[in-house]
Design brief:
Helices cover about 30% and strands about 25% of the residues.
Length: about 290
């Protein structure tokens, strides 16, 4: 069984390009797969591999100046959830496109998974899901507001248009692992919202720690690897990706007449040209031939 570590940390990283090659070399030497993003604001990503390899890479990152408090969330996978190991340079480790947002300056109040149900059940609390629309469609918290965004860049504009809906409300926000909420809560605080909370460790920590019988989570949680979705106890879920549009599909979705393996699903059936479809079909044929 492989260990999967999802991690992020906001801290000043003035030389991400210098860190890139040594980090990639270490990950490969330790037999890891996954993707890590480096930016002047920190690190973000998910890696998978043997326990000793994960420990070695985490220790390496925590030795960087300002990264000693790096935290991560663990799950497991029976097979490698990524095809290869990549370390990429980015302008932001999670792209919001708001240069004044600074999670190292201030963020909302962290709420432990065990205390989340009580908070979001309070009548004066509005719960906001900060993830993309296709993620929300396969699972979210009971009663959560879905902004319907296709990109995290869209969130500030959505808030500007909808802030009036949350007058005199405390705001509770959540995302997959917690990273988006570091920025979204800082953003809301800059907009004058005083009572802002976010789920510490994100949905993954909640699904790991809160028993299913006590849970207010409905559905599954999308993850950005070949497992596609996770359920309670971080068990692999039922979803698979449409290899055309990369959206998650349930078993029921894959029974719909619009679905063609490797070529389209009901969500993207009108989104591509005939030439695109034939290219997708050829890719699927290559995949089938190679096993």
């Amino acid at each position: 069984m492989l260990t999967v570590a999802a991690l992020y940390h906001f801290a000043r990283l003035p030389d991400p390009a210098v860190r890139q090659a040594p980090l990639l070399d270490l990950c490969r030497a330790q037999g890891l797969c996954g993707t890590l993003l480096l930016a002047p604001e920190g690190i973000n990503g998910t890696i998978a591999g043997p326990r000793a390899g994960i420990d070695a890479v985490l220790a390496h990152i925590r030795a960087w100046s300002g990264f000693s408090t790096l935290d991560w969330k663990e799950s497991s996978a029976a097979t490698p959830p990524f095809a290869r190991m990549k370390v990429r340079l980015k302008a932001e480790i999670v792209t919001m496109g708001q240069p004044d947002v600074d999670p190292t300056a201030a963020v909302g109040s962290y709420v432990e998974a065990r205390d989340w149900n009580a908070l979001i059940s309070a009548p004066d609390v509005a719960v906001i899901d900060t993830r993309n629309d296709y993620e929300v469609q396969i699972g979210t918290f009971q009663g959560a507001v879905d902004p319907g965004t296709t990109s995290f860049r869209d969130f500030p504009a959505w808030w500007e248009e909808n802030a009036h809906r949350f007058h005199n409300k405390r705001i509770a926000m959540f995302c997959t692992g917690g990273i988006r909420c570091e920025k979204s809560t800082n953003f809301l605080m800059a907009q004058g919202v005083t009572d802002v909370f976010h789920l510490k460790g994100g949905i993954l920590k909640y699904l790991e720690e809160v028993p299913q019988d006590d849970s207010l989570w409905q559905g599954e949680c999308f993850v950005f690897d070949q497992r596609v979705s996770l359920g309670h106890g971080l068990q692999q879920g039922r979803h698979q990706l449409c290899h055309a549009c990369r959206r998650p599909l349930s078993p029921e979705d894959r029974q719909r007449p619009e679905y063609e393996e490797g070529a389209c699903c009901h969500r993207c059936v009108d989104e591509y040209t005939d030439a695109d479809r034939e290219r997708f079909r050829e890719r699927q044929r290559q995949f089938d031939r190679n096993g």
